[in-house]
Write the structure tokens for this entry.
Amino acid sequence: QVQLVESGGGLVQAGGSLRLSCASSDVTFSSYTMAWFRQAPGKEREFVAAIRWSGGSTYYADSVKGRFTISRDNAKKMVVLQMNSLKPEDTAVYYCAADRVRFRVRITTTSDEYVYWGQGTQVTVSS
């Protein structure tokens, strides 16, 4: 089972930046597409960004495109979400997740396809 631990959340003013990290100790980490989802109070969990297991392909939600960047370091078993130009509507608990399928060819944005989840980290953006 893939275990994931997020870090890096916090409180930031609008226009600021935060860097979220997700670490895994699983030896199969490099075979999974990794994604970030978020959930704001009273709202459903939504897809934010994903990066293919090889690191060669990424996908972003329209709401964060151009502001957020996802990257991974398979040697360190880590995935990072760099968030710039943050807006109050980015406020949410952010979750790191690993795909249920190893070596999936195409990135999926469906949360049901991600079966390994971290505990979440709170991001709060003040106006």
The longest strand covers residues 92-102.
